[in-house]
Amino acid sequence: MIGSLQDNALALRARVTKAAERAHRDPDSVTIVAVSKGFPRAAVDAAYEAGFRVFGENRVQEIREKYAFPCPADAQVHFIGSLQTNKITQVLPYVQVIETVDRPELVRALQRQLEKHDRVLPVMLQINISGEVQKSGVAPDAAMSLLEDALAAPHIAPVGLMTMAPLDADESMLRSVFGGLRILRDELQERTGHVLPALSMGMSSDFEIAIAEGATHVRLGRALFGERR
């Protein structure tokens, strides 16, 4: 795995760099979130050795087992799955960012737990730009209200927005979804005066289009680690 991961890492960074340069962007403005869900801790450690510092996980029990021994201090774990309020206490010790805050109840529950530990947690708001009923995320017209809830919570620091595009979408649809998130972010910033620098969008099959539309974080698993078994 290590040899193939190193090869994948080189190829992936080259693709990210080319995509950023085509969009007249600094490649360093794009962070690869190495989606390590379903892969063992050894794969995370190998990716760290290859230079990756941000890892994405979406399963509570897997996070607890995989990160029982902490990563180095310069690494981050982002929670990228749907988070139930009764699982918050199991996740918080292991993650540095939650990308999937999608409802007021979750904001309130996070605030209560974070307040107990006097901790401020960066979060992203998950927006369902595509409108697919099977996808999590708040509707775009409810994003302002959710952001206001998050801004009113002293221990929550909204840093950006996150979305997922439909599977097998064509380029026109992908650009509509990813561009829609960027436009929504700009509107929210203008209305609130609160800067939201992060746009987490794009996965292994569509990240180059996401970068063209302004992604600052691309969530890449298969392209780095290979197929899950």
Concise summary:
The chain contains nine helices and eight strands. By secondary structure, the protein is an alpha/beta fold.
The backbone outline, from C-alpha atoms, is globular
- Beta-sheet strand percentage? 15-25%
What sequence of helices (H) and strands (E) makes up the elements?
HEHEHEHEHEHEHEHEH
Rg, nearest Å = 17 Å
Fold-level CATH name: TIM Barrel
Q: With helices defined by DSSP (H or I, 4 residues minimum), what is the helix count?
A: 9
Q: Can you offer a commentary on this structure?
A:
- Strand 4 (97-101), helix 5 (104-116) and strand 5 (121-126) form a beta-alpha-beta unit.
- The chain has 229 residues and is of the alpha/beta class.
- The protein has helices at 2-22, 41-49, 60-66, 88-91, 104-116, 143-151, 171-192, 207-212, 222-225; strands at 31-35, 54-57, 76-79, 97-101, 121-126, 156-162, 198-200, 217-220.
- It has one domain: Alanine racemase (TIM Barrel, Alpha-Beta Barrel), CATH 3.20.20.10.
Label this structure with key terms.
alpha/beta; TIM Barrel; 229 residues; eight-stranded parallel β-sheet
Itemize the secondary structure elements and their pairings.
Layout: H1 2-22, E1 31-35, H2 41-49, E2 54-57, H3 60-66, E3 76-79, H4 88-91, E4 97-101, H5 104-116, E5 121-126, H6 143-151, E6 156-162, H7 171-192, E7 198-200, H8 207-212, E8 217-220, H9 222-225
Parallel strand pairs: 1-2, 1-8, 2-3, 3-4, 4-5, 5-6, 6-7
